Amino acid sequence: MKEKNEFLSKTAYRIKRYYGYTLATLISLSLPFITIGGNHMFLLSFDKKQLHLLGTAFDMQELYLMPFLLMLLFLGIFAATSLGGRAWCGWACPQTIFRVFYRDLIESKLLGLRRIKNKQKEPDWSKPQNASKKVIAVIIWSAISIIAASNFLWFFVPPEDFFTYLQNPSEHMFLFGIVLSIAGFLIYDVVILKEDFCIYVCPYSRVQSVLYDDDTYQAIYSTNRGGDIYNEDKEKIIFKAKELNATDECTTCESCVTVCPTHIDIRKGLQLECINCLECVDACTTVMGKLGKPSLVQWSSTNAIKKDIPTKMFRKQTIMYASALLIVLALLFAMGGTKEYMLLNVNKTTQLYKVKENNVVRNNFLLLFQNTESKKLTYHLEIMDHDDIKIKRFKPFSLSPGKMAKKVLILETNKILVNDKTKDTPITVTLKAYAKEDPEKVQVFRKAVFIYPRADKLK
Question: 139 vs 5, which has greater pLDDT?
Answer without folding.
Answer: 139
